[in-house]
Queue: 2 jobs
Job 1
Amino acid sequence: MHLKGQLKLEAEGVPVAIFAPHDFAGLFSTIQRLGGLTGREEAAASLNRTRAGGVNVVETATRLAPFSLEALLQADPDVYVI
């Protein structure tokens, strides 16, 4: 949503919250913040607990990294999330 649209909604009394998580920590923070905004704090906390300690098998500091199908098969992850 661009700023003009946000301002129009706010002028009409519509609550606006914008989130742009860029990593898993940001995603979990967003879930918790949404829970607080909607009065569903415990549901958000519960959802955050189901992450089950997952670990990214792609070890790189860059946001986008080439990772071939062969590398994926060699890593042998329990789950593959796109």
Job 2
Amino acid sequence: MIPRETMNTSIPGNTNMMLSRLSNGRRNSRFEKGQIIFSQGEKANSIFFIVSGTVKTTFLSETGKEAVLAVLGSQDFFGEECISSESMRINTATALTPATLVCIERQTVLRAIYDEPELSVSLMNALLMRQAAAVEDFCDQLFNQSEKRLARALLKLARNQKPDTLQDASISSVTHETLSEMIGTTRSRVTLFMNKFRRMGLIDYYGDPNAKGRFIIRKKLLSEQFMLS
């Protein structure tokens, strides 16, 4: 059975209200589609919260092979490695769509952990949930076939768009190539499975199956009654 929902690794509660308390050491930044926010190996000196838009994080191996680690949406955060002293960026973050982010400097984050109990607890809870989600992703890669991994990746994308409801989710700027990098298979197999999902009424395209990165995840996929054969 495909789970109805995946782990929510965003900061719970009124994020904007909590972030507004951090008047110093923060700034709003706007990134265009395809713009790199930070690169793997750079010094990590800030954490980012997504106000709007979509961001992907990727990892580049020593052999030059790139893998998509996550596709993040509104209320998600990334760059948390800055909390560690003398830390480096462990991945590359890129805007998949135009994105508005709140960038908070490391020292401000550390000060908030001590001075803002509500934000501190929320951040630690989200970090623990993210760690659990990473273990879940690892088990998914080990034990599930690529078709089920794709269904799970689509569930995550839908949750980014519609975190609190079982409604159709409109997805943009996530191509079959990106999906293949997310689940560790070929683009042709992703296309095969996406066509199957479309016939089953689980997804749909904006009139053209070749529309680059634009499709709809139907709420049928989100139902816990749905069984993937």
